[in-house]
Amino acid sequence: MQFIIVLIVLAIIVFFASLRLCNEWQRKVVLRLGRFTGVRGPGVFLLLPFLERTPFTLDMRVTLSRFVAEQTLTKDGASVTVDALLYWRIVDAGRASIQVSNYADAVLGAAQGALRDIIGRNDLATLLSQRRELDDQLTVILDEQTEPWGIKVQSVQLRDIKVPDALQDALSRMAQAERERQARIILGQSELSIAQLFKDAAAIYETDPTALHLRGMNMLYETMRGGLSSVIVVPSSAVDTMNLGALGGLVAGAQSAAAAAGQQPAPASAPLPPSYGGPPPAGPG
Predict the structure, then answer these.
(1) Cβ atoms of residues 251 and 268 within 8 Å
(2) Distance in angstroms (rounded) separating the CA atoms of residues 54 and 27
(3) Integer Cα distance of 56 and 36 in angstroms
(4) Best CA proximity match to 119, nearest among 157, 66, 83, 80
C-alpha cells in the first residue's frame, strides 16, 4: 500500500514538473534530447519528463525598435544623422530561435546597415523630400534580409533627419531663392496675360469706334465719381472722340445770342443740363 502511495506521489510530481503554461502572445520552442521538435503554445501543454525542455520563450507581438545612423554621408557629400523607427514581429518561432543567436540585435544591425546604404545612394534633397519612398525601400530590403530568420518587417519610418547648422542655413537660402524665382515667374506670366488682353481690347477699339467712345466715357465717369476737388485734364482728341465739343458749341451760341439782345451773358462755366446729371439752373427772380 505504501508503494502505491509513493508511485502516485511520484506521478503527481512528474505531471506537474512536465506541465507548461504559455500565454496567448507567446510561443515555446521544444527541444528533445537537444534536437528541435517543434513549437508549443498558447495554453497548457505537457512535456516528456527528463527528455524535453523549452529553453526559449518568444514574444509574437509587434516590436518597436529605434535605431540611428549617425554622421552618414549622402550621395552629394552632406553629413546627416537619421533617426528611424522599425516595426517587426516574429512569424516563425522555430527559425527565430535556431537560425540566429540574438534575433533582436540581428534585426537592429540589419536595419542600421540598410539605412546607411540608402543614405549613401541618395542625395540630401531626396532624403528630405521623399521620405515615404525611402521608407518603402527600407521595408522591402529589411524584409528580404530577415525572412530567413522567421521575422517579418512591417514598416520602417524615418522619424528625423538632422543636418549641420551651416548646411541648414544654406538650405534656407536656397529655399528662399526658389520661392523668389517662382514669384517672379508667376508675375511675368500675369504681365503676359494682361498684355494679351490689352492687345485684344485694342484690336476691338480699332475696328469699333462706338466701343472706344463708351470706354472713354466710362473712364471719365469713374474718375469723376470720387467727388474729390481736382482738375481733370482731358485731351482735345478725347473730347472730339466723345462728342463733348458739341456741348461747348451750344454754350457759346447761347452766350452770343444773349449779347446781341443786350442781356447779361451767362458764365462759361454754367452748369450742365439736367440730362447730364447736374441740378437745373435757377430761373429769374
Answers:
(1) yes
(2) 10
(3) 11
(4) 80
Q: How far is CA 21 from CA 14, 57, 208, 281, in A?
A: 15, 11, 98, 113
Residues in CB range of 79: below 8 A, 6 or more apart: 71, 72, 73, 163, 164, 167
State the Cα–Cα distance between residues 231 and 216, nearest whole angstrom. Answer: 17
- Least Cα distance to 31 among 17, 50, 12, 45 occurs for 50
Residue 76 backbone dihedrals phi, psi, to 5 degrees: -95, 15
Write a three-state SS string for the chain.
CHHHHHHHHHHHHHHHHHEEEECCCEEEEEEECCEEEEEECCEEEECCCCCEEEEEEEECCCEEEEEEEEEEECCCCCEEEEEEEEEEEECCHHHHHHCCCCHHHHHHHHHHHHHHHHHHCCCHHHHHHCHHHHHHHHHHHHHHHHHHHCEEEEEEEEEEEECCHHHHHHHHHHHHHHHHHHHHHHHHHHHHHHHHHHHHHHHHHHHCHHHHHHHHHHHHHHHHCCCCCCCCCCCHHHHHHCCCHHHHHHHHHHHHHHHHCCCCCCCCCCCCCHHHCCCCCCCCC
pLDDT, tens digit (0-9, with 9 covering 90-100), for 25-73: 999 999 998 898 989 888 888 888 888 888 889 999 999 999 998 888 8
282, pLDDT greater than 90: no
Task: Please state the pTM of the whole predicted model.
Answer: 0.59
Distance, CA of 195 to chain centre: 34
Q: Which residue has the cell 524535453?
A: 52
Where is pLDDT greater, at 284 or 45? Answer: 45
Long-range residue pairs from 205-209, CB within 8 A, at least 24 positions apart, any chain: 209/241
Give the residue carrying C-alpha cell 534633397: 125
Q: How many C-alpha atoms does 208 have within 13 Å on its Cβ side?
A: 12
The dihedral of CA 194, 200, 201, 203: what is its sign?
positive
